[in-house]
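dude i think i finally got it to work??
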Amino acid sequence: MIAAHPPILRLDAGGLPVSWIHWQRAAELIFADRVLWSLGDAPLRIQGGLRGGQRSVLTIDPVIATREAHRNPAPDTPPLTNRLLFARDRHTCLYCGNRFPEHELTRDHIVPRCQGGEDVWTNTASSCKRCNGDRKGGRTPEQAGMSLIALPYAPSRAEALILSNRRILADQNEYLSALAPDRDDRWN
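look at this
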């Protein structure tokens, strides 16, 4: 039995990131001859059965590009979820600057929905319950006398894949990071 292995990064034929897949799905794609190219310094080696006295071995690189273009390509901007929002903001309340576990954070609408604010990446920030409920409430930061410590943004597809995988391998991170814009300047 194979121990838990980090997900494999699947790319389309043009090298754009599509999704994380399990090693079993990657093996299926390899056997079906649907992998165009692959890369990585830490491949997974899977031993199979005996054939002609030799044990078969399948090598799966951490990054694989499949031959076909995808029928439903992933959108450039991922759907807004609390998990990705909190990861984007480094599990930090963008008002007080303190870090919190996920269950102690809330999704704050910078321009509150009751004032016409939208539920979109650029109008949301991670906030602790105290800052969101007790201090800000249904007001804008300006109305509440508060300020954001970082600018909200909509992550790219590559950034969303980085944010969504806690077990990302160095090769995968390097590939995705090269596609992601530099965002270090968003923090005040």
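The beta strands are 8-11, 17-21, 35-39, 44-51, 54-60, 63-66, 105-109, 124-128.
im so relieved honestly
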